């Protein structure tokens, strides 16, 4: 689908997404199979053989679309039964924000409770800037992996936040979410039906939960931004599949990136993979440029789109698709951050910060492990 610039309103959201408000329209349109030949008027004048009609419809992806819709309905009917057994997410007690030593460099927005505007400048880096982006990205990746080891039943998201905060501070960095537009915590923890921006609190994780942990660090004046969805205890096969496919969508989106590639190819590739499984791709939250500024252009759509623009060598931005088992519509809680699926269906997200190169993309929020 095509977005019209005059109908879009963007506001920044700290943990690797930007909130997108626009008139809703289906991300994918396909004609159902029928005896009408109006769809083929520009191809062949008529068909007499049902078998030939079947073959020609496949060329137009009509059969694939019909099968996708059938799979989606089957998945959604299964989800409705599972969702009823899982109590809806409820907010727990939120503890006070944690202190940061004065010696640690802080991003400019910390001095204000106002939500920063998105910078219109794309972020490009010289050799020194790339080195600093790599350092920030590696630290964010290590912190995220450490946070994932804490995911187990009975652990609270507040305990995860405290551990993440301490690790970032010990590394001499600042937890980017803390104080961004008034956000009270150092990390985002989004459980089950929470799409993103979950505020850590006193709620204990339960066996069967999935949780996205979104980590951003500000190190030596540069942000590194990444997230993963982790499994807690005995998770259902349908939720495991959702998590697996969401990670695959991120990988496929990154795979198309290189100097000169159009940004819209990212959303096309992600949507193609998600649609094979009948999953919805959330349109409201998008990736963004990242570097010395937390959020900037370009805005990276994860669904099918006609957004203009091309990638340029030396540029950095995030890709961070959110997939759902059901509706992609969302509701934001009164805290103005926590955003959940409108129908209570589970959501999963993965994110990386990448650097565009001449021949591909370097994932900055990844590190090499040293085998013993």
Structural class: alpha+beta
**Mean pLDDT across every amino acid position:** 85
Number of helical regions? 6
Order of helices and strands: EEHHHHEEEEEHHEEEEEEEEEE
Shape: globular
Poorly predicted parts: 1-13, 20-60, 79-84
Largest sheet: 4 strands, antiparallel
N- and C-termini, Cα separation: 50 Å
Number of strands: 17
Helix content: 25-40%
**Rg value:** 21 Å
In terms of DSSP E residues, the strand content is: 15-25%
Order of strands, main sheet, comes to 1-2-9-10
Any overview of this molecule?
With 372 residues, the protein is an alpha+beta fold. It has six helices and 17 strands. The N terminus is likely disordered. The longest helix has 24 residues. 28% of the residues lie in helices and 20% in strands. Strands 1-2-9-10 form a four-stranded antiparallel sheet. Strands 3, 4, 6 and 7 form a four-stranded antiparallel sheet that branches. A three-stranded antiparallel sheet has the order 5-14-13, with no helix packed on it. The protein is globular and about 55 Å long. Helix 3 packs antiparallel against helix 4 and helix 5 runs antiparallel to helix 6.
Write the layout of secondary structure elements.
Blueprint: E1 9-13, E2 17-21, H1 50-59, H2 62-85, H3 127-149, H4 157-170, E3 174-175, E4 188-191, E5 194-196, E6 210-219, E7 222-231, H5 237-255, H6 264-276, E8 280-281, E9 285-289, E10 296-300, E11 316-319, E12 322-324, E13 330-332, E14 339-341, E15 347-349, E16 352-356, E17 361-363
Antiparallel strand pairs: 1-2, 2-9, 3-6, 4-6, 5-14, 6-7, 8-12, 9-10, 11-16, 12-15, 13-14, 16-17
Helix pairs in contact: 3-4, 5-6
